[in-house]
Amino acid sequence: MDPAHWIDTFGYRLTHICDKFSDIVQILEISLEYEPCLQSVYQVLKNCCPNLKKLRINFEDNEYEPDLGIEILPGPLLRRPNLTLLKVTCEVQVTPSLTSLLQLIVNASPNLRKATIPWGFYPNFANSKRLDSLRVELDFPWPIEYAMEDFKPVELSRLLKKVGDQLVNLTFSRPGNYLMPPCDKAYNFKNSSKTRFKLPRTMSKLQKFENEMVDIFQHQRLDIERLPALKTLRIGKILEKSRRVDKLLENLYKAEKVFTSVENLAILEIQDPKLLDGLKTAFPNLKRLELDTRCKKYFKGELGEMLNTCKGLEGLKYLHLMVSTFSEPRLNIILTLLDSAELYKELKVFEILIFRGTVRGDLTEEEMDLFKKLLVAMNGMDRVTIHNFHVGEESRKKILDFMVSNTMSVSKFELFRGG
Length: 419
What we know:
The protein is α/β, with parallel strands linked by helices.
């Protein structure tokens, strides 16, 4: 379809529907591919849907340039006291027109509670006195040099200073599980002034802090004094070869930080297995733990060390482990899991994600006997999931027959997902 025709069709349909059902529409989701479509979105938000409660916009500009320039009018939008959720995702770098429109939306929505904003957009939340959840998303998986062009730490600090004392949830999110490659060589964050960013001095209400880009938002340490209400902490990295996650943990241990309020912890791509032991001291009251060691390829014994660490965490109920590969025979794997039978007595949910699965084939008689013992040991949990543990069709049938004959709840076991 000709882009100009697509733009006209989009504008006509959006305007027609929103005008016809203006007072009824409470949730509006818009996905657009061309920047000129923003003009139609502006007109709709200026004149229609006064009862809008949730607004989601996905912007994917394909660099189409029409003959006529676009201009987002500077006039204010229709005031929206009912709008509490704004989610904007952008698969390209934000444009001035998109920035202008989004700021007008924020200005017109004084009762925003949850906001997801794209990387490179730094709105003024001065009038957003009820905002308690903020998510900054880097949606486009480009080389890090391009992403850093849009990062303005001074602007981000200004943004957070306005709402830091009222935020309950704060997230810096990377694009899924994707790890960014550099263009030519590793990006030098150490000498970059771009990373000079600090959290606001007071974040007394913050309960959930997720930073999946510690390479960019570098924290030498996390100040307990600034985060007294913190319950959920998630840390990860954006560059494949980065050691920033490990470095943050090292600094926490050296400073003898103890986060007694943290109940949910996720550490993505930890590389040094020696850092596992420190978790029990730094986070003594965990109920949910997620650990990822998949960047440490072929790290022998990683599963056993991870399980041993978790044994010392009293009160742990949810455990999610991600490992690069099982480098040992299946018999050793089953024995390693069976050795942690005491851990399963306390857990409610246990999940293992293996990125490089085991060798396919049926279990030997010895392996089958041990696997049945493992099932009995795990039977007390509410849900058990093991990804990429490969066994043959005959073994799967024997395992199912064993579970049925012993009146086990088959539905709570998902043992061979992906395998």
